[in-house]
Amino acid sequence: MWRRLVAASWLSNALSYPAQHIRWKIIAPYAVLAGLMAVAGTYMVTRLVTGSLEERFNNQLAESARVTSDSFVRRERKHLEVVRSIAFTEGVATATKSGDAPALARLINPIAANTKAERVEVLDTTGKRVYGAKLADAQALTYTSLSDTTDHTAWPAVSNVLSMQVDALGDKFAQLVETPDGYAIYTSGPIYDGNELAGVVLVGSMLPSFLPSVKAEALADVTVYDFDGTPLVTTFPDAQNKTEADLTPADGVRANDGVSTIREHKTLYGRDFDMLYGKIVIRESVVGRYSVGLPSSFILRAGAATRWQMGLLFTVATLAV
Question: pTM for this structure?
Answer without folding.
Answer: 0.77
